[in-house]
Amino acid sequence: MITSLAIIGVTCVGTALWYFYAPLYTATAQLVVSPAGEVLRAGAPLQYGQEIMSRIMRTHAALAVSNRVLNEALKNSKVAATDWYQKDKDGALERLREEITVAPITGTNYISVSMSGKAINKRERIELAEIVNAVAEDFQKISRDVIRGEREEDIANLNRQQQELNTTLSAVRRDMNRLLQAGSDRESLMLLTYKRRTLSTELDTVIRYESQALSLRAAFEEQVADDSIYASQDVQQALNLNPTLRALRGAEVDAVTGLDRLHAKYGKLHNEFRAGESRLASIRKEIERQEADLKTQAVSLLRNAREAEVEMAKQARDDLQIRMKEVDEQMTELQVGMARYEQFSGEEKDLEGQIARLNNRRLELQAQATGEVQVRVAMPATPPRYISMPKWKIMVPLGVVVGVVVGLGLAFLLEFIDTSIKGPSDIARRVDLPLLGMVPHADDLEEEIEDVRLAFMAQPNSLIGEAFMQIRTCLLFSSPPSQQRSLLIVSPLPEDGRTTVAMNLAACCAHGDKKVLVVDANFRQPAVRSLFPQCPEGGLSSALVGQAGWEDLVYEAQPGLYVLPAGVLPPNPAELLGSEQMRQLIAEMTEKYDQVLIDSAPCLLVSDSLILSTLVDGAIMVVRAGATPMGSSRERATSSRESARISSALCSTPFVHLPAAI
User: Fold this and answer.
1) What angle do CA 504, 510, 512 make, to 5 degrees?
2) What is the pLDDT of residue 354?
3) Strand partners, 375
4) Mean pLDDT across the chain, nearest whole number?
5) pLDDT for the residue 627
6) 0.70 cut: is pTM over it?
């Protein structure tokens, strides 16, 4: 609101100063642009199309501020005699280009030529009109020659561009014909695709044949290894078909028959019978030798046959793969050619479109050449009588709008960038933790409190004391007492009020006839010893390293309220707090005291609080309204909920004017 009012006030004061001390006056002349031999009137038909006429108007407006027109205007005797020109002759051209304004009037064939300046007296206003009229008159004289010369130059440029495009188009068409002759078309691609599909089918067949040949060879080698090959049909057939072996087997049969006759005739002891036995043994030995040789030969022949089958399959497969590779290369080359053909086809269409546009533009320029455009001064400039700027009807509403927009934008920006917790509703809606209570700011109290951290001990009936009584009541009903013996007081950032909450809540609980122990576990920035200088030397760190018993280091601040300071700051706080000694200390403390409150370090800066949350029954998170970020509170609340054995609760801080939620 203040920003909006300030901007509105500055706008009004600035407009008044501008109006009375540096007003601007504007002199304006109007020129009419019309076809040759015809003066356009309201409702008269135009000779050219709307697009062509609009281009002509813009061209003339640009010509009116060209160096040629402005130099001619500055040579005018009336302009040379003005104070405006005499003030800076060398920079007159640049000043005139900056101050003169030439623009077509929308929906008409008129061009406005105007100039604004600080014309305090009547003479300066007359000079403004004279300068504008000089520019308008010189533009009227020069426009025809300039437009004609530019048109002829444009036509020559168009002809040259068209010739270059025709040359490029011819080259593109030659490349397209060459690609067609080389077979870069869809029919050739279809033939190659069919050929590749056929080769692929043949390759699959050969691969299956090769697999079968390899299987047969492997089976053959297994039969050779276990000697079962000699009983196979192929080997037996080779033995049966051998004439030498057949003759020997016949001789064996004859020898057996003759031996039987000799046995019947002479008996086994006769020399003839023994000679027959010797012949039979010799024949059988020869049969065994022949069978062994024939089996070896048969196995060798079978092995060669299996190897030949495998090699033939491999050779066929390699040949087909080579042929498929050649077809793939041909297809790739053909696809590249077809892609280039498509590219050339697109270039051909683009070039044809460019040539058509150049033809149309050339025809337009030639049509303009047959009917020249005339420019004449329709309304000369007169000395201005009224102030053109500032205008109250524009500046004041503009200031109001800008003030409101800036004010609202600033308010929304401040609200957007402020991500802190504002009040109890943010706790329930964003952080998703139970609310224990709120603590007011110390400045909102009527009582004089020297140290807000000891507010309950000093004035238990104060507003802060009542707030902590309410917090104690909510805490009692949040879970069974057995699950509240040890509580961790934690906050996302420093100076959020952890020690204030720990001490006042402990004093409030002790006020209800309980023995409460406050443990300062903040090894980063301890605060208990500064509140109670009478505490014994040492503290929690001394107990953790075994230098003293923790019971000897406890100080009774008031009846029922005991404190244990942090002691000497250790170099490894996280290791000490996560040790087994710390777990045993907490167990011993909860046995001796009704409730143990542990004041810890900020959880966003160090991991001490997260480690301690695994050793206690629950955690209370302290947030400060207007200071604690929403995201950090939500993140640490989730971590505390996962590690503590009861639901975490939130607590506010007394260091802010806005009430915050616990």
Assistant:
1) 115
2) 87
3) 33
4) 78
5) 59
6) no
Return the CATH number of 187-370, one of 3.20.20, 1.10.287, 3.30.70, 1.10.1740: 1.10.287
The b-or-e profile of 201-236 (16+ CB within 10 A means b, else e) is ebbeebeebbeebeeebeebeebeeeeebbeeeebe
Residues of the chain with pLDDT under 50: 36-47, 370-371, 632-662
25-35/110-117 β-pairing: antiparallel
φ and ψ at 587, to 5 degrees?
-65, -45
Domain-by-domain residue ranges, the chain?
Answer: 1-19+392-417, 20-160+375-391, 187-370, 424-661
In whole angstroms, what is the distance from residue 330 CA to residue 192 CA?
Answer: 8
**Measured between alpha carbons, how far is 413 from 415 in angstroms, rounded to an integer?**
5
d(CA 661, CA 424): 5
Closest CA to 457 of 600, 556, 526: 556
Contact partners, residue 662, CB within 8 Å, separation at least 6: 435, 436, 437, 438, 439, 471, 474, 501, 620, 622, 649, 650, 651, 652
Three-point CA angle 270, 275, 278, nearest 5°:
130
- Kind and range of the H or E run holding 579: none
The pLDDT of residue 393: 65
CB distance 110 to 378 below 8 Å:
yes
**What local confidence, expressed as pLDDT, does residue 604 receive?**
73
* Residue 253: predicted pLDDT: 87
Could you report the per-residue pLDDT of 121-138, keeping only the tens digit for each?
778 778 888 888 888 888
Using alpha carbons, select from 514, 504, 495, 494 the residue that is nearest to residue 436: 504
Q: What is the DSSP letter of 386?
A: S
Q: Read off the DSSP letter of residue 487.
A: E
CA distance 171 to 344: 10
Q: In the prediction, which pLDDT does 195 show?
A: 86
**What pLDDT score was predicted for residue 19?**
59
Assign residue 495 a region: left if phi > 0, alpha if psi is -120 to 50, beta otherwise?
A: left
Q: How many CB atoms lie within 10 A of CB 15?
A: 19
Give the H or E element holding residue 442.
none
Exposed, middle or buried: residue 197 (CB in 10 Å: 0-12, 13-18, 19+)? Answer: exposed
Provide CB contacts within 8 A for 486, sequence distance 6+: 586, 589, 590, 595, 596, 598, 615, 616, 617, 618
- What are the C-alpha distances in Å from 268 to residues 273, 282, 369, 388? 6, 18, 145, 159
pLDDT for the residue 410: 74
Return the structure tokens found at 587: 């167990």
If you write DSSP's letter for every residue of 612-651 in order, what string do you get? HTTTSSEEEEEE-TTTSBHHHHHHHHHHHHHHSSS--EEE
Length of the chain: 662
Q: What CATH fold (topology level) applies to the domain 424-661? A: Rossmann fold (3.40.50)
Q: How far, in Å, are 540, 577, 638 from residue 544 at the CA level?
A: 6, 8, 29
pLDDT of residue 565: 92
Query: Which two structure tokens, joined as six digits, stand for 130?
Result: 């004279």
Q: Which residues pair with 26 in a beta bridge?
A: 116
For the four alpha carbons of 450, 456, 462 and 463, in that order, the dihedral sign comes to: positive
Alpha-carbon distance values, 29 to 24, 26, 478, 570 (Å): 17, 10, 85, 88
Q: Which residue is it, tokens 């929304």?
A: 412
The Cα–Cα gap between 136 and 101 comes to: 11
Token pair for 539: 């503290």
- On whether the CB atoms of residues 651 and 503 are closer than 8 A, the answer is no
Residue type, 266: Y
Cα separation, 398 vs 297, in Å, equals 114
